[in-house]
Specification:
17% of the residues lie in helices and 27% in strands. The chain is α+β, with helices and mostly antiparallel strands and 193 residues long. The chain has one domain: Alpha-Beta Plaits (2-Layer Sandwich), CATH 3.30.70. The strands form two sheets. Strands 1, 2, 3, 4, 7, 8, 9, 10 and 11 form a nine-stranded mixed beta sheet that branches. Strands 5-6 form a two-stranded antiparallel sheet. Strand 2 and strand 3 form a beta hairpin. The radius of gyration is 17 Å and the shape is globular.
């Protein structure tokens, strides 16, 4: 079987897996199976059900290992909407690494957006609170602990409201809409191997 590499824009409220999990009420969460009908490809890393954005899927185990093993420090970039406007001190803490669950995160690249980034609306939208402003950050991490971005922003006092992964290394969301996928180009594949 030839190597397959897919980029997928995972929508909100979709599990990063193909197998269904039946809930107590008999319904099931949406999964990748609803969007991708290519056998033998698997997600490289995960995005939580309440996170959105770029996922890479492949049947190449070597590439999957290289991109998920923390030793390789493969960068992932997220656009993060947080509650309130982070102080310069909070941003500096995120850049230096913060303590979460007894673990100190690696330093991250963090910048505050001047304006809301151009993203499709989330369905359902995040909660709106008239008296509580929000801000958007761009965060680039080189590790991928469970719910790390959310735990980092909460640790410095600015809870995450919306989280969208926009890049994995050199791969970017670009023109994909939520629920869409495409094959990687040969040039993009070379950046992974």
């Amino acid at each position: 079987m030839p190597d397959r590499f897919l980029l997928f824009y995972k929508p909100y409220d979709v599990l990063s897996q193909f197998s269904e999990e039946i809930l107590p009420d008999g319904t099931a969460h949406r999964t990748l199976k609803e969007f991708i009908a290519i056998p033998g490809v698997y997600p490289v890393g995960r995005l939580d059900r309440d996170s959105e954005g770029l996922m890479l899927l492949t049947n190449n185990g070597q590439v999957q290992h290289r991109l998920t093993d923390p030793r390789f420090q493969h960068p992932r970039t997220y656009w993060v909407q947080v509650e309130r406007i982070p102080s310069p001190e909070a941003l500096q803490q995120l850049r230096q690494g913060v303590e979460i669950q007894g673990y100190r995160t690696r330093p991250a690249k963090v910048q505050l957006f001047a304006a809301e980034p151009d993203l499709p609306p989330r369905d359902p939208p995040i909660r709106f609170r008239k008296n509580v402003p929000t801000a958007w950050l761009e965060m680039t991490l080189t590790e991928g602990k469970n719910r790390q971005v959310r735990r980092m922003t909460a640790a410095v006092g600015f809870p995450t409201l919306r989280l969208v992964r926009v890049a994995i290394g050199q791969l970017r969301l670009q023109d994909l809409a939520p629920g869409q996928w495409r094959e990687l180009t040969s040039t993009e594949i070379k950046t992974l191997i």
